[in-house]
Amino acid sequence: MHHFQYRDGALFAEEVDLRDIVAAVGSPVYVYASATITRHYDLFAKAVGAPRNRVFYAVKANANLGVLQTLAALGAGADTVSEGEIRKALAAGIPAERIVFSGVGKMAHELAFAVEQGIYQVNIETEGELDLLNRIAVERGKRQAAVFRINPDVGAGGHAKITTGSSDNKFGISFEEAGRLYARAANLPGIRIAGVATHIGSQITDVAAFEPAFRRLRALVETLRGEGHGVERLDFGGGLGIPYDVPYPFSQGPALIEAYAGLIERVLGGLEVERGFEPGRLIVGNAGILVTQALYLNPRPARTFLVVDAAMNDLVRPAMYDAYHEIWPLREPAADAERQRYDVVGPICETGDTFATGRSMARVAPGDLLAFMSAGAYGASMSSSYNQRPLVPEVLVRGGEFFVTRPRQTYDDLIGQDRLPVWSA
Ligand SMILES: *Cc1c(COP(=O)(O)O)cnc(C)c1O
Questions:
Q1: pLDDT per residue over 157-194, tens digit each?
Q2: 202-231 pLDDT, tens digit each
Q3: Which of 38, 282, 355, 390 could form a disulfide with 344 if both were Cys (CB 3.0 to 4.6 A apart)?
Q4: How far away, in angstroms, is 201 Cα from ligand 1 center?
Q5: Nearest CA to 76 among 44, 119, 121, 103?
Q6: Which residues contact 230 (CB under 8 A, 6 or more apart)?
């Protein structure tokens, strides 16, 4: 569920009329509802037994400082995949003791920063990383807590590009290698292996997809313990999906979370481990929208193109994952409003810059404001300035207030990042 609703014919984010935000910062603009972030975080944290178990919000889904600050205040930890994300989490008030560092290709300077900050856990994905982390920690006189990310050879996820748990994917250590690496790590003075982690994919809306991976995880824990290794922590990764394609308000959320927590209890109950979770999309996906303005209509014999001012550089999910986003007008259409089919496209010179094809909508006129719904996860965080389009602003709403947590990038910012070469000859 979320907090974007019509009131007297106008779309609101919590108590704020979205037209007021557009009047203040222009279009396109990302808008986030803190009430939705809070609701989703609290529901999830309660279902999985936090704070006894731990929730590390996956920062890559939405790294806005205002979003991170909101989560920090709720007690969330952070799952990060780069030094930049660790720095952002720290800047938003998430302490190092609540930060996990994941990722297949961590660089030496990133591991060094993580160790120096004293983060909670490094999720190791290769033997090379194990050795590098050990060396870095020893050089600093530290012992870093870590877990092995295991590839359970079970693929799942809403799209081939977001499936990560199959042995054909680049992620993690195989089951067969886990015991050997555990034994090796026992002799490394810079590392303390605390357990194992997994993450099988994203946008998973049927919890049954997790079950084979979780069963294999349980078997692995029992095997490792049988070999005399300590396993205190189990990190389940993220991956729970959200509804993108149903009319709102929608409230499957709690049911899915309950089913997920129930599955974990059923499959892994009684194991005596601290459980860790890394939800991203589930927390922020339906907490954000991208507001855009209709620019032009381009009627053709077979279709009508609706050109809007947002583009694939602002929201790449449709182009990259064939993702579906509901499109709601900011002014509520009458129930009997005439409808038309549109191909909703952005201004970029690529056919992939298409948000929707043949979408039936109440008639749109140039100048109308529209919202791409469910754009809070993997929206702004994946945006770029392709075509030299400045990054769009991000606004956080709380109750009747809104705050511009990221102003629109200026042309000076955009150009000033480059340097004109000065040659010596
Ligand atoms: C991307 C990712 C997550 C978050 O995935 P969601 O589908 O957004 O919940 C969690 N853990 C790891 C290791 C990831 O790569």
A1: 666 776 666 666 777 898 889 999 999 999 999 999 99
A2: 999 999 999 999 999 999 999 999 999 999
A3: 355
A4: 7
A5: 44
A6: 193, 194
3-state secondary structure of 182: helix
Whether residue 245 lies in the annotated active site: no
Q: What is the DSSP letter of 425?
A: -
Which residue's alpha carbon is nearest to atom 12 within ligand 1?
A: 237
Is pTM beyond 0.85? Reply is: yes
Q: Relative to the CA of 164, which ligand 1 atom is closest?
A: 15
Ligand 1 contact via 83 beta carbon (within 6 Å): no
Catalytic residue among 246, 302, 349, 415: 349
Residue 351 CB burial class (10 angstroms; 0-12, 13-18, ≥19): exposed
Judge if the beta carbon of residue 165 lies within 6 A of ligand 1.
no
* Bridge-based pairing state of the strands 4-7 and 10-13: antiparallel
Q: Is the distance from CB of 56 to CB of 79 less than 8 angstroms? A: yes
For residue 279 and ligand 1, the question of a CB distance below 6 A is answered with yes
